[in-house]
Amino acid sequence: MDDMPHKMVFVGATGHSHLVLGELEHYSQLRYVACAPSYPGEDLGRIEYVDADGHTPQVYDDWRIMLDRETPDIVVVCGRHDTNGPIAIEAAQRGCHIIAEKPAGHSLDEIATLRRLVAEKGLTYASMLAMRYEAPFYTAHQLVRQGLVGEPYLVAAQKSYRWGVRPDWYGRRSTYGSTMTWVGIHAFDYARWVAGVEYTSVCAYHANLGHPERPGCQDVATVMAGLHNGGSALFNLDYLRPEAASTHGDDRLRIAGSAGVLEICDCGSRLHVITDEKDTPSWPLQDPGRTLLGDFVAALEDRGDLLAPAEEAFSIAEFAVRATQAADERRTISLQTG
Amino acid sequence: MDDMPHKMVFVGATGHSHLVLGELEHYSQLRYVACAPSYPGEDLGRIEYVDADGHTPQVYDDWRIMLDRETPDIVVVCGRHDTNGPIAIEAAQRGCHIIAEKPAGHSLDEIATLRRLVAEKGLTYASMLAMRYEAPFYTAHQLVRQGLVGEPYLVAAQKSYRWGVRPDWYGRRSTYGSTMTWVGIHAFDYARWVAGVEYTSVCAYHANLGHPERPGCQDVATVMAGLHNGGSALFNLDYLRPEAASTHGDDRLRIAGSAGVLEICDCGSRLHVITDEKDTPSWPLQDPGRTLLGDFVAALEDRGDLLAPAEEAFSIAEFAVRATQAADERRTISLQTG
Q1: Which one of A42, A237, B113, B330 counts the least CB within 10 Å of its CB?
Q2: A152 has which bridge partners?
Q3: Could you tell me which residues are beta bridge partners of residue A125?
Q4: pLDDT (tens digit, 9 = 90+) per residue, A193-214?
Q5: Most distant CA pair in chain B, distance
Q6: Looking at the partner chain, which of B207, B241, B275 has a beta carbon nearest the beta carbon of A242?
Q7: Which of A233, A244, A275 sits opposite B244 (nearest CB)?
Q8: H or E element: which one contains B257?
Q9: Domain ranges of chain A
Q10: Hey, what CATH class is B131-288+319-334 in?
Q11: Is CATH 3.40.50.720 the right assignment for the domain spanning B6-123?
Q12: Does the structure's ipTM exceed the value 0.90?
């Protein structure tokens, strides 16, 4: 892209908009010009943003009209779960670069279409797989790559959230998606990325057991995946974390390898590493020194790479969709190609 | 049984013989009269036991001859994994009460035969599922029964061991069995017992990845089970715990229920309970005040019950065998009857 300011718009205010807005002040080349709801009636309070740098986004009712009139360089897609894939596809069709909430899509078709468009048009596509930027996960990724735990054979990850207040549309699968595509995808991604593995098969289970007022939202899900190296991965996901818990979430990762065990524990805050030589309960954490928005801008300007490349965002969304399918159809799905 | 001393013999010195010998001094009504190897060449050093109370077990080469000549009241079966089912069956056929290493058998047929004999002959059968006696698990069982975490919907358990030195016969499935039947069975049992659930289906995975010198021993295993209440359970088992780890094993249990989350962590030593009202990182542990041998003697003398009744020992062994089968055959097995 040239040196002109990059015109940016937002569609939707449902997801992790702060990953962009919270960093916007650091990138004077970005101009936040407009926003629109991802569905009628969406509260845009979180993205109707005016700051000292003069971002004064115009509010549209219809995101298609906004895209047509504003012809933005960048579309931030952050809407109701079911809308993110279709909106990103239309943005890509218009040649816009994209920062999108995960998952990239709710169906294999959506994801395939998006992958094709992003490749054909040479777009920068950043997925909000922001847990890669958290120091324990980032550090763990480096350590496994350095061979500290040897070959990873057994991976176990957890995402557990408080239920809190969930919007009405969590009650319908058609709008919510699944807990694997919305929550599990983080764990699927950080486990795969940190361990450096590929998933070759998946069987899974999910159900709404404790929150009948939102039947479309599975408050319990479990996933078992085969790994390319003959190992296995387990994921347990729930919305059963009690209100009195010390944090909203309790994210974990454990990797048992041929030469050591690495674990992210204490609600995602501590990195415990054990090798045959040494037990280190609190491994020093390395701050990545980069952000999702910073990487996106750098990629746009050919100065750097995304920490979560588009293809990894697409393939992990596919995995989440297949895992959901495995649970719905109660069967093991092979993911091996060729 | 009458008030005469109970004649007790040991077959095998491979398993957790200390659960009996370590408590023997407290039960003057037991007379340890003889022992024999479970297979030719087995080292009996751990059970050739003489104490101040005058237990001077005679050592036999052949356990069948020992059973015939000594006509014991009690047989402790503690041999090489594959021998425990067949030896227990022969002991039961002779009308002996039994304390046996888990699993009760390596095949569904063995377990069914043992179940039938124990019922027909009115025998006391105690399985060495001794983790139920550990204070964190015992306390957790009481808390779940009291309803502290509500209905348990998601159960996750771990057994991780150092590899250390494993005997030659770990190298063959025919003698070792599987890591699910030998190690996993503890987790299957304590998870089921603490959560108060039944397993309705199982899919599983296992492999030997890091220890090719013992190909019959799976150093990684993962298990996913459906629960009777619509929930799900996950188990991860490994022999990948590094030598520098603080303990030999790292046993865990997490139960997420409709009203709270209960967790046994810090290598099985700490009980963390979170309800909607309170987060209690170290719940006070309740010592069970009983032992496997004490319960066995009490059951024999009609003074008490086993903490792990025979039927639960049989059904959890069946589950471990079915889980192994699920992994070997790469399919999900339904466990629901009728």
Answers
A1: B330
A2: A257
A3: A98
A4: 999 999 999 999 999 999 999 9
A5: 62
A6: B275
A7: A275
A8: strand B252-257
A9: 6-123, 131-288+319-334
A10: alpha beta
A11: yes
A12: yes
